From TrEMBL:
Keywords: ATP-binding, Membrane, Nucleotide-binding, Repeat, Translocase, Transmembrane, Transmembrane helix, Transport. It comes from Cicer arietinum (Chickpea). It holds the Pfam family ABC_membrane. Gene3D superfamilies: ABC transporter type 1, transmembrane domain, P-loop containing nucleotide triphosphate hydrolases. This is ABC-type xenobiotic transporter. One of its GO terms (cellular component) is membrane. It catalyses: ATP + H2O + xenobioticSide 1 = ADP + phosphate + xenobioticSide 2. It is an enzyme of class 7 (translocase).
Amino acid sequence: MGFEPLIWYCKPEPNSIWDKIVDSTFGSYTPCAINTLVTSTSNLVLMGLCLYRIWLISCNVKAQRFCLKSHYYNYMLGMLACYCAVQPVLRLLTGNSAFNLNEETGFAPFEITALVIESLAWFSMIILILLETKVYIRQFRWLVRFGVIYVLVGDIVMLDLLLSVKDYSNRSALFLYISTVIFQVLFGTLLLVYVPNLVPYSHHTTIQAEIPENGEYEPLCGDDQVCPEMCANLLSRLSFGWITPLMKQGYRKPITEKDVWKLDKWDQTETLNEKFQKCWMSEFQSSNPWLLRAFNNSLGKRFWYGGIYKIGNELFLFVGPIFLSRLLDSMQNGDPSWIDYIYAFSIFVGVLVCVLCDAQYVQNVMRVGFQLRSTLVAAVFRKSLRLTHESRKKFSSGKLMNMITTDANALQEVCQQLHGLWSAPFRIIIAMVLLYQELGVASFIGSLMLVLIIPLQTFVISKVRKLAKEALQQTDKRVGLMIEILSAMDTVKCYAWETSFQSRIQSIRHEELSWLRKAQLLYALNNFILNSIPVLVTVTSFGMFALLGRELTPARAFTSLSLFSVLRFPLSTLPSVLSKVANANVSLQRLEELFLAEERNLKQNPPIVPGLPAISIKNGYFSWDPKAEKATLSNINVEIPVGSLVAIIGGTGEGKTSLISAMLEELPLISDGNATIRGTVAYVPQISWIFNATVRENILFGSKFDHNRYWKAIDVTSLEHDLNFLPGRDFTEIGERGVNISGGQKQRVSLARAVYSNSDVYIFDDPLSALDAHIAQEVFRNCIKEGLQGKTRVLVTNQLHFLPQVEKIILVSEGMIKEQGTFEELSKCGPLFQKLMENAGKMEQEVDSNKDRDSHDNKTDALPFNNEAMVELPNDTNYEKGKLRKSVLVKKEERETGVVSWKVLTSYTSALGGLWVVSILFACYTLTEALRISSSTWLSVWTSQDSTAASQAGYFIFIYALFSFGQVSVALANSYWLIISSLRAAKRLHDAMLDKILRTPMVFFQTNPVGRIINRFAKDTGDIDTNVFNLGNMFLGQVWQLLSTFVLIGTVSTISLWAIMPILIFFYVAYIFYQVSEGGDNFSVGQRQLLSLARALLRRSKILVLDEATAAVDVRTDALIQKTIRQEFYSCTMLIIAHRLNTIIDCNRILLLDTGKVLEYSSPEKLLQNEETAFYKMVQSTGPVNAEYLCSLVFGRTENNSNEYNKELEIHTKPLASIHWNTATQFAIATTLSSLQHLQSPNTKDKKDIHNITKNAVTTLQEVLEGKHGESIEETLTKYHVPIDRCVFEPDRPVQPGIS
């Protein structure tokens, strides 16, 4: 007696047709089993998926909702679904059973149940389709489509069963079932290709569709939010179960940095670097220090621990081939089925252990690789800060950056693959032993061919690396030029150089892609060789085995194939590993040389001692280059007392900045003298350094916030007024390089940073040159003179009207201190000082001008300097310091998460060349898989023969070789086609991006950091060049292989295909769940401004914009430049932006701005005639003597303009001035454009020659402004037969990039 409920449910008929005709283990229970397990299960899955999607549409308020533009497609799907839902009901009503054979009647319970479930499933589909005509969501739609496909596969299984007994079936019932299957196939096809046209749903607001950026942190499992790996149990660590909380969070929203765990202490860079430094110091003290040994001592434990897992992985890798041979032999010999199950289970266990060991091995060595890289980055950075000046010459910034990137990456990669040096030979030996057991002597021939391929592999890989290196050099050149373009984008746009630079970039890009194309095509050829060798080895080995008279059984054939497959990996990777080891050894030696280099003595400055000077230099000779014949600074003897205010003055390029560099011990001392600075030091550079952060963060600079000290620093640097007009006051974000604040504001933020540091010594490198006259006066008085009183202050300045207020003046000329003393002393007995003051128009200034200014200030109490010419500051009583919301300028970088959108895929398809290119690729993948399946099928046919004669063996071998070589040949053609197409797409995408960037308004560059833009042209472009091709080829190959495998399984056994389909959905859901988601530094700032000015003069534009063009030059040079500009550009429109009133005092019109508004606009004569104007008060704020001098320039100009003699003199002097300018600046500008902008490579081989020649040209240019070299210029013109009139008119042609 059987199980009564099962008998009632299935109604089996003993000795029925199902027993006799159908070859099934279920016997008479076959229709019940197939209908219940396959059909009903499939329909239940479909019904569940439909109901869940209905719930999402109806109840899930977080889902983004849409409407369909047209409902006709849904109506058509609905009609097909109606037929599929009604047909089971119709069969029930008519009593038409598909399983009644030989005119049997009635329904068994299992068939009634199946028909009801099928009808309910399709009715749920109808409800879903109708609901989607009202509201449509994107979530879960593909899973519903999978459910339909799953039902179709189940129907095919049932149809296959019914067709096997069609001679005994009811014709009408069979016809109804076939018609239902046809309608379901039609429905599934239409649903699969359905791409709905959607519009936003207007009657619903999505609630928190995405987690906001400022959303609260959701705690993860782990003590103190530290990675819980070390606390996890053995099973969790083996299966990586400890990472599940992070994966759950990643499923709910895209993972960001704040979502992940904190690093455990042993993974933190600080801990790793400390451990390495201890190991390296111990190694450094040995007789033969070896960097590799230090790395092994600090990081080796986990690396060798991973090696244990690698041993387990290698051993269990061979469990599959061994038990596969036993399984096939058992099946061929007809052994009991339980033995087959044991073998199959053994294969499963072997694969499982192999995968677990491999995962642990990869996790350990990858972790060590990242630890090694972070250690190296920290160690190189630490060492770079400690290098002596001599050592620094051997290790330039580019070389150090190369160590942090290239060398660190090389060691990281080799660390992750170093175990391959022993595992590859181990795997080869074991595989060859097992092959010998299967094929005997014939295996040696195949194995020998595999070994001989190693030298060829090594040669090809080395060649590929050389080609890739050439491509990388072009990449570096292109990215370097892009950095310079983006850094000077305002200049590029001003001169309309976009087209010139675009063609230059595209030329380099063409060379880069040419090298890349060669490298990738050669790499594809290498892959063809790798794929061909197994085919050749297999054909040769099997052919030799057959020719020796041995029988090639399925067990021997497929076991040998699996072993040859095992052999292919180590033989293909071993040459690569050896090459990477060689490269890593070179990187190791470079890093070892760095770590062995001499370090600076980084002792703290000695403390302030009463009675001793704060800064002292005795018998100092300093030079940036100890081998130079002339020192940068010579015979320096200076003492600066504690608490004093000292000014350093001198002409442009005379050595002022070099002197303070010597004080800071940055400029190397080359004599027996000494230089000492006591106490803590704050330095304000000539060019203010501002980083992308808030105003407050720029001032604090990492220090702890002190309310009183902070607002005092704001007050003494006159920033309070500016903060009132910033959207977030001191919480306003400053853009990269301070693009959204003025030059004066940047300089005062830099000053406030120094004041807040509360140091003992302050060194200011001409910070007042970027400020307005009245602001400069106020900052000097409130900050430098009074606010820092008691501190030691050294001020480099070109604004000589501050000199009467300092305690000591140091005059630097030709790299030496020519004069030093008080203002009174130098005014009486300092000839150089007297001449400098005379050139500045200040010799008449009296010593007591400070008192005059103070009395003037007292007279104008109601109009203080910082508000005189400014709009009144509104009273904002609601403002609470420190509590405003941060004003964001630079937006957070946008990034795509989740599945790649169709828009991106469509764009890339268009860049590839269109659908016809993709169609050819898909055809190649399809043909490759067809040939692969054909070769395996043919091998199965060959091994199924009873005996293998020599003649038959040759025939089978030839066909097998034809299929196999055809497969790899098509794969090669496919790779070549994909490489050519992908590089074409890379070029189009890069050119389009470059075109957009060069034509984007400047506001884009002010709100997007340069590094972010460069990343698009560097890393992202590199990914498109190489990674997209490799990953795309790998992905598409795997997809086609998976599809072809399913087709093969479905052809052999449809029910097997139905059974494994849920595995697909499992992996898909798991996938979704785990989807986590150098320019002119050798010149002073003043010299660089001269070069920029000369470039503008050569261009001869109709409109000339001078934005603080002479702020960093001394007053005398400024006057000479202004005179020359007015002679050269008397017919041009000039817009001059300057803080020095001397620079703009003789302009035709003066435009005074305040907080972005026009305050005054008129001629200087009218503005100075009205004592109530802000401009008049500005002039008066410079002091009575200088104010009188400025007024004389304005009103004296009026008289001179009416003088015909001056006009005639101007006409005669113009040609001579043109000759001077053009002759002196041609080579300087050509060299500047060539060396600094990469527009033209100079002929000279030595970079030092370029710097010297350009520096000499700048000096000559400065001397020409003084009226020197007239005879030399005329001689040069005569020598080269250049007429004077040509020199006058030839420069009217604009200078374009690359033209000298």
